[in-house]
Amino acid sequence: MMGPAHSLSGAAAWLGVGAAAAAAGHEMPWPVLVVGALICAGAALAPDLDHKAATISRAFGPVSRVLCEVIDKLSYAVYKSTRKAGDARRSGGHRTLTHTWVWAVLIGAGSSALAVVGGRWAVLGILFVHMVLAVEGLLWRAARVSSDVLVWLLGATSAWILADILNKPGNGADWLFTAPGQEYLWLGLPIVLGALVHDIGDALTVSGCPILWPIPIGRKRWYALGPPEAMRFRAGSWVEMKVLMPVFMVLGGIGGLGALGII
How far out from the chain centre does Cα 255 lie? Predict the structure, then answer.
């Protein structure tokens, strides 16, 4: 899928988690619901770090472009070193390592650990990166005609304000993980969810997605999961733009209302 659909699906997924958490008696404070949805929207773009033409490659200027090239080469190296006889020969790393459950868990766990160990500045860094990505994904039309600096300023301002709101008593710094020293441990959850939602979205397209790596399936270790071919669509097609994106908006709205106890 394309960036806007990925981001919308990420935000909708976290709002759905908020509704489920409320039903289970672990209600999210509204700042956790809002921040988590924005982080998840941004994280849903991150697996495309292996693709030099993706939205994320433009998000942070030369830094993200270089990072995309590095991740592409790393992903390709992992693919070559772990492929089985049934896996196709490739010339690049797109839709390999960063499109697996292993990557999602590692990135989420690393972010949680960084937030706990690094304190406020680490939290601000995590928020800044994902706020910028959320702007690029959710407000993509405006972002493309704006300068990068304006997008970065919006991301930095949002990160600073949201970090202050979360840090106030009762606003969710210790949501779900309440032991001393576990503040912001939950930040990794929307990052994991965003990456997995991205992978599921890509699995619906004609190319499928090797979400289950390194678990072998038959003669392949990089088996591209997906529905029957008749149910798949091409990225950027009318199905994505006219059907899936409106569905994500509706589901996100329902999830948000459920999380807030309105329905």
Answer: 18
**End-to-end CA gap in the chain:** 31
The C-alpha atoms of residue 10 and residue 152 are separated, in whole angstroms, by 21
pLDDT digits over 89-137, tens only? 888 888 999 999 999 999 999 999 999 999 899 999 999 999 999 999 8
Non-local (6+) Cβ contacts of 1 within 8 A are 9, 198, 201, 202, 204, 205, 235, 240, 244
Helix axes 101-138, 148-167, angle to 10 degrees: 110
| Paired tokens of 109 | 């766990």
Which residue is associated with the tokens 């949680």?
Answer: 112
Tens digit of each residue's pLDDT (9 = 90 or more) over 180-215: 888 999 999 999 999 999 999 999 998 899 999 999
Position 223 pLDDT exceeds 90: yes
DSSP conformation class of 22:
H
Whether the Cβ atoms of residue 127 and residue 212 lie closer than 8 Å to each other = no
Question: ∠ at Cα 140 (189, 242), nearest 5°?
Answer: 90
The answer to whether residues 209 and 196 touch, using CB atoms and an 8 Å cutoff, is no
Burial of 133 (0-12, 13-18, 19+ CB in 10 A): buried
For the chain, helix, strand, coil in percent to 5 are 65, 0, 30
User: Phi and psi for 184 in degrees, rounded to 5?
Assistant: 70, 10
- 122 DSSP 8-state letter: H
